[in-house]
Amino acid sequence: MLISTKIVFMRILCLLFVSLLLNGCSEDPCRSHPEGKPATIEIEVNRLEKNLFMAQEVRDVEKFLQMHQQMAARMFHLNEYPDEKILAERIFGLVQNEFIDTLYVEANEAFDQPLFEKTMNISLGWLKYYFPEMTVPKVQTMVSGLYNDLVISKDLIIIGLDFFIGEKASYRPKEVPQYILRRYDSKYMTPTILKFFIADYCSSGDEETLLSEMIDYGKIYYLLGSIMPCTPDDLILGFTAKEILDVYAYQELIWSRIIEEKWLYVTDEFTKKKMLGERPKTIELGDECPGRVGAWIGWQIVKQYMDETGSTMQELMANRNHHEIFAQSKYKPKNRS
Prior knowledge:
By secondary structure, the chain is mainly alpha-helical. The protein is built from 17 helices and four strands. The chain folds into two domains: 133 residues, no CATH class; 128 residues, no CATH class.
């Protein structure tokens, strides 16, 4: 009986442990969003590269370009050619190149179309929830031999799939720094597309100070985080997971350094680029401080402003008084372990 009792006791402990573990892991990792539901969106991805790579002669490519003139103009800059046939010949040569064929196969394997469509439908649904006037864009894909990565406007999104194969690609964009190259990966693709797509919904500040431009970026990332509520911060910002941990861990020190240097209200482009431009590190703030850290700070200011004021998304995006947003945010960061 003693052995039997011990076994039962151990089973109970195991069940309690599993229950606690599951409850601990079941916390919703997603950001908060309104009580409402996103609009129903169903985008249709037009895989243009599949038609293009079936071309048997130059004339087939000419017909393809004629059928997709908007894509040809934006993706391949058709309007810069004196004769459409010149571009058709160049593209046909591209299609026949065995190295490009390798990229075509790898891009097709790397692109998870069902997941992409699901994520885009939910995200654009939330965007339309906030901005009912939004027009659902057409979405097209292409393999261009690493000629063009993205073309984005309010009505059309064209994705150069061969840029987003990832580190296992046989060929990658040349002369691109590693800290940018790592973002040419499928996991960063959708957040990157949406970051550019939503920019027109975010009004810029009425001043040209570093603070105002940090909040410019903060608005974009706040909206992006809201329409992609379950996407981790590092993918939203294009940081590494370690960089996100570092900026949260040392945010008080980063902020105090900016205040000490009296940078918030500077207007010179050199200082603003230090904080907002593409760089591997913001060395002025620390050896491990990532580039574009000013954009992350802007996001934190905007998040705190929204928590403090309860403003709506529409009110936030229409507010061009970024000094007011900063003042009402009461932003005073504390380091997180």
